Amino acid sequence: MTFNVLWMQSGGCGGCSMSLLCADTADFAAMWRANGIEILWHPVLSLEGGTDLVALLEGCLSGQVRLDALCIEGAMLRGPHGSGRFHVLAGTGLPMVDWVRKLSRVATHVVAVGSCAAWGGITGSGVNPTDACGLQFEDDHPGGLLGAGFRAQGGLPVINIAGCPTHPGWTTDTLMALAAGFVTADDLDPLGRPRFYADQLVHHGCTRNEYYEYKASAQKPSDLGCTMENMGCKGTQAHADCNTRLWNGYGSCTRGGYACISCTEPGFQDPGNPFHLTRKLAGIPVGLPTDMPKAWFVALASLSKSATPKRVKQNATSDHVLLPPVARNTGPR
Fold first, then answer.
1. Which residues, 6 or more positions from 323, have their beta carbon under 8 angstroms from its beta carbon?
2. Whole-model pTM?
3. Can you give the pLDDT at residue 331?
4. Which residues contact 199 (CB under 8 A, 6 or more apart)?
5. Which CATH class name applies to 3-198?
6. What gap in Å lies between CA 62 and CA 52, rounded to an integer?
7. What is the pLDDT of residue 291?
8. What is the CATH number of domain 200-319?
């Protein structure tokens, strides 16, 4: 039996679909089919439109078409004044939020693809003129469009594949696990994210970890050092496996020289400061590593800096390695 996926797009940039299309798998759609996943409709991949799409949606609502997973990309636009008419599904005269509410009631699983669908994301930033929210969260506050108590037909809350954009592997692995019946409530973290990636930190596997350990910090974008202290990196707080599950088998934000902006977390879009700078209080970063009390961090940072090897200190503020590690015999002595 196939696992039927209906993918709809609301308020957002389409970046999660673009990420999926750029996956290192040459033909991810064929890989999905080989694992029993059938795409009923996707705004980029499907040829059907207009009356054909409306007929499909009506078939899902009537039960003629089995809807195993409703995937929503983009934030829910509730404005103006709660009418939802900032985004009307073409050819239907009905707001997208109304379609999502109705389809969610008949879907076995509801999946938010990306941080916009999960908590509002970039679409809900600033004064949020469109009254954008996530499917079951508004930033980190439960509720959103469907309400905190919502459960899909399969018994699970909205599954939030958060990220801006999502890693294609997170989306594929989640759908495959759902199709195989392997996902339970225990497989989701408190924010509804799949634990296989959300129980990791971007910090894990970061190539700048030696600089972090010694608090040898970068001062400008081209420097090799840790970007947490001065340049806005939140890799020690961001729940994702970006540096152990590399993008297209090769890269990540931090490996490309960019600070992690914690795009899998609610509220990342409004950090209270420019993304490339670290917000500080009395010289100490406000966003400290997960589970680390401030006093411990201050003590560790002071001790680490006093023990920083000359090699690490000089390389941290350079755009290339000035001093390589010393060659020494590491055998028994």
1. 310, 311, 314, 315
2. 0.94
3. 81
4. 189, 239
5. alpha beta
6. 15
7. 80
8. 4.10.480.10
